[in-house]
């Protein structure tokens, strides 16, 4: 704490600190709202992709192109391509 801060009247310092806290809280609320909106958009996109993927799998099954067991093997192979079986796409090791 600087000498000027020690000499500053309590009420002035208190008001300044309250303004800073309020500003930080407003920033946090804006950040939280932006994160909430992004999460909702991501959920919407995942739901849409899930529907699309299920439709494609059903089409391939109905055409006799692939069955679910074969598809599971292919997915597992893709999953392992990055060296880890973790249920997500990754980049192959360089």
Tag the structure with descriptive keywords.
94 residues, mainly alpha, 2 domains, 0% strand, elongated
Q: Could you describe the 3D structure shown?
A:
This protein is mostly helical and 94 residues long. The protein has 2 domains: 3-50; 64-94, no CATH class. The protein has helices at 3-7, 10-63, 68-80. The chain has 3 helices and no strands.
Number of helices: 3
Order of helices and strands: HHH
Which spans have pLDDT < 50 for at least 5 consecutive residues? none
Tally of domains: 2
Q: What structural class do you assign from the helix and strand content?
A: mainly alpha
Shape estimate: elongated
- Beta-strand portion reads under 5%
Q: Biggest β-sheet, characterized? A: none
What's the total number of strands?
0
Q: Average pLDDT, to the nearest integer?
A: 87
What Rg do the Cα atoms give? 27 Å
The N- to C-terminal Cα distance equals 51 Å
Q: Helical proportion?
A: over 70%
